[in-house]
Design brief:
Rossmann fold; 11 strands; six-stranded parallel sheet; alpha/beta; 280 residues; three-stranded antiparallel sheet
């Protein structure tokens, strides 16, 4: 008897069949790829927001109050990101890369879990939450080091808790007006997570590299993304225009369902872990 939490044999067989027929798959992953690691996603099964939209670049850079609130919430949420471990989806994709089926992987996530699972060729489309950039001198430093500075400047803040978002933010309603935000230790400039905020453009070279990876692929596999955000959807659209087969593994509906040759509504972690194992 199949265990209640195991993936359906049909889903595993259909995805395994799609993968086995390809030699260079372009993989695009989203927040649903990391939910099995304890990092919540943004959207429900209908693709609607589960929580407030993330802070925008304009609000972060233009308002001291917004910036204090962001860093206060991030101080609470960051440990969840830092302590998360790869799940079956990350391990499965790394195994498929090692077997030669996956040619490139572009992730919309900022958690770095693909690399920690051993995936070699990863393009972090939206950056990495583990890094911090100074918007003045452009120096990149460690978010873990900044966490120590944040906690040192705001005693007791580490004991607070809130609902964590995929970008390491956390939701809570406490007053943050007294929260102290450290400046760049080198030039005194404004610090920002080295990730692409809403309203901020993905660096052009990353976009070009992702388009080149689509061009070099023979197919596309979308894992855990609703494709609601254009920064990821454009690569799936490009593959469709090139006539390449597209498979989508996601719990809910996606923007790409109409152009996909295979859609599976199932757990990314469970299915990919099973697909990566040798068939009996």
């Amino acid at each position: 008897m199949r265990r209640a939490n195991s993936p359906s044999a049909e889903a595993v067989d259909r995805l395994r069949g799609f993968i086995d027929a390809r030699e260079s798959i372009f993989v695009l992953t989203g927040a649903g790829c990391s939910t099995g690691s304890g990092i919540p996603d943004y959207r429900d099964e209908n693709g609607d927001w589960k929580r407030k939209q993330p802070v925008t670049y304009a609000a972060f850079t233009g308002s001291d109050a917004v910036r204090r609130r962001y860093w206060a919430r991030s101080t609470i949420g960051f440990p969840t990101m830092a302590c998360a471990e790869p799940n079956g989806a990350h391990a499965g994709l790394a195994s498929l890369e090692a077997s030669g089926h996956v040619g490139s992987l572009v992730t919309q996530n900022v958690d770095g879990l693909h690399q920690r699972a051993g995936h070699a060729a990863v393009l972090d489309l939206h950056g990495r939450i583990a890094d911090v950039v100074c918007l003045d001198c452009r120096d990149v430093s460690s978010r873990s080091v900044l966490q120590d500075r944040l906690l040192g400047a705001n005693p007791g803040w580490g004991s607070r808790s809130g609902l964590v978002a995929p970008d390491g933010d956390a939701e809570f309603e406490e007053d943050t007006r007294s929260f102290q935000v450290p400046e760049c230790s080198g030039c005194g400039g404004m610090l920002k997570p080295d990730v692409v905020f809403f309203g901020e453009n993905v660096p052009p070279q990353r976009v070009a590299d992702a388009y080149a990876a689509v061009e070099a692929s023979d197919s596309v596999l979308v894992v855990g993304s609703s494709l609601k955000v254009f920064s990821g959807w454009r690569f799936v659209r490009a593959a469709h225009e090139q006539g390449k087969p597209i498979a989508i593994l996601n719990l809910g509906r996606t923007r790409g369902d109409d152009v996909a040759s295979l859609t599976l509504r199932a757990s990314c972690s469970d299915v990919l872990a099973a697909v990566a194992r040798p068939a009996n």
